[in-house]
């Protein structure tokens, strides 16, 4: 039953089990760095063991650990040979990249700058107005999706953080772009009121345009205790909307609840199954197979306070909570976007590609026939491009990847199977 109201089991045992795991992980990665003032301000009241490392610049905290595979139960095997090519560069945290039907590439930096590269041309900026853009920690200009009807309406959906006039939220706004790709003009806000945390933490904001024209949205819990399990909040959810913001299914835009910070969404070819990737606290990043109405078991509400020392999927408190398809265990990898590989990848066709921030690698996971298990995996590009955030498929089977290294060092690069 969606959003089960099954009576809750006692929390003590679950919290104890989680604290033991978290304590072991924290002990193994103890940090005694003196952080720069700007970093300390961004981290706010969070302790080192609670930092969502997707927002931490490389070399500052939790440096990548070479050789970490894809979780404790995944056998790492030799992966496909790949080729890479830089497509755009000189960027500063390009959170997402999208491809228009004519091959034009568009990426937006978290600070609000939008850049375009048309086929055969150099990259350049595109004018866009985002009044009140809140750029802090894990918030700012983030996910984008090209509307399925783009060739007729030239619409692009953008998820961004706004703080203005006493109002704060993450919102999805639809823009139209002119034929020369010089200006993006606001058409309408299609979904407002997605919570935005005071420190900009856990904003989610991944968008995925489905073949039927609807849009899936991944949100974060905004470091709020009650949001993930409350159906009155859009925090800690996946959402499913039409391009006008109305519910795509049923009478609610909420698709699933009980998430911590959804960073990736992908639809599996052939099955239509929807998968998400999200950050764990100190342990247990997850890939989930999403079932409409499902509860994925994240509940940091302990006596009314936000407490991360709880299981990512708490099946003791929520017996109907849906277990993850994949979990990193300890340490975490800090997964970002995910995408399924096409036939051009040979024996790796159908594998789930997962970009990773902290561990700076592309992980491929081959799923079992049930879609709920992992057969084996491979690790590619470890440390070669820095922190990897977004994955976007191209018609030839290659993937566009954005990096997240800051200080104008970022790129959009293409990774392709070498023998394609």
Average pLDDT taken over every residue: 88
- Rounded to an integer, what's the Rg over CA atoms? 20 Å
List the total number of helices.
Answer: 3
Order of H and E elements: HHEEEEEEHEEEEEEEEEEEEEEEEEEEE
Q: Give the helix level as a range of percent.
A: under 10%
Q: What is the rounded distance between the termini?
A: 45 Å
Question: From the helix content, strand content and strand pairing, which structural class follows?
Answer: mainly beta
Percent strand equals 35-45%
- Unreliable stretches, pLDDT < 50, 5 or more residues? 1-50
Question: What is the 3D shape?
Answer: globular
Largest beta-sheet characterization:
8 strands, mixed
Overall strand count: 26
Strand order, largest beta sheet = 2-3-4-5-9-8-7-6
Structure notes:
- By secondary structure, the chain is mainly beta.
- The protein is built from 3 helices and 26 strands.
- The strands form 6 sheets. The chain has an 8-stranded mixed beta sheet with strand order 2-3-4-5-9-8-7-6, with no helix packed on it.
- The N terminus is likely disordered.
């Amino acid at each position: 039953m969606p959003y089960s109201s099954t009576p809750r089991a006692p929390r003590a045992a679950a919290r104890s089990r989680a604290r033991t795991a978290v304590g072991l992980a924290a002990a193994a990665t103890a940090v005694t760095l003196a952080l720069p003032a700007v970093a300390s301000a961004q981290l706010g009241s969070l302790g080192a063991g609670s930092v969502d490392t997707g927002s931490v610049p490389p070399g500052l905290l939790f440096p990548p650990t070479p050789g970490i595979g894809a979780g404790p139960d995944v056998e790492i095997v030799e992966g496909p040979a790949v080729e890479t090519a830089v497509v755009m560069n000189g960027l500063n945290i390009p959170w997402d990249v999208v491809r228009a039907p004519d091959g034009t590439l568009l990426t937006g930096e978290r600070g609000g700058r939008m850049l375009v590269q048309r086929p055969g041309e150099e990259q350049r900026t595109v004018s866009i107005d985002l009044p009140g853009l809140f750029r802090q920690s894990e918030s700012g200009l983030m996910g984008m999706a090209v509307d399925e009807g783009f060739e007729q309406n030239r619409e692009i959906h953008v998820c961004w953080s706004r703080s203005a006039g006493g109002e704060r939220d993450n919102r999805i706004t639809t823009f139209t772009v002119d034929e020369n790709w010089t200006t993006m003009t606001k058409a309408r806000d299609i979904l407002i009121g997605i919570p935005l945390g005071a420190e900009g933490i856990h904003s989610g904001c991944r968008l995925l345009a489905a073949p039927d024209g609807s849009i899936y949205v991944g949100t974060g819990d905004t470091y709020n205790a009650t949001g993930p399990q409350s159906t009155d909040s859009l925090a800690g959810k996946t959402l499913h909307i039409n391009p006008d913001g109305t519910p795509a299914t049923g009478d609610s835009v909420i698709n699933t609840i009980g998430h911590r910070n959804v960073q990736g969404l992908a639809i599996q070819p052939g099955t239509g199954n929807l998968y998400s990737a999200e950050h764990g606290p100190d342990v247990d990043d997850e890939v989930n197979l999403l079932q409409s109405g499902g509860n994925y078991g994240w509940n940091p509400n302990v006596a009314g306070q936000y407490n991360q020392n709880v299981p990512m999927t708490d099946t003791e408190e929520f017996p109907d909570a849906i277990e993850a398809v994949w979990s990193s265990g300890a340490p975490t990898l800090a997964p970002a976007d995910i995408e399924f590989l096409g036939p051009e990848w040979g024996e790796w066709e159908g594998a789930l590609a997962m970009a990773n921030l902290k561990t700076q690698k592309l992980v491929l996971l081959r799923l079992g026939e049930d879609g709920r298990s992992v057969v084996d995996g491979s690790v590619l590009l470890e440390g070669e491009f820095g922190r990897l955030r977004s994955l976007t498929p191209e018609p030839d089977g290659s993937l566009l990847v954005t990096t997240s290294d800051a200080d104008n060092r970022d790129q959009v690069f293409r990774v392709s199977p070498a023998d394609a």
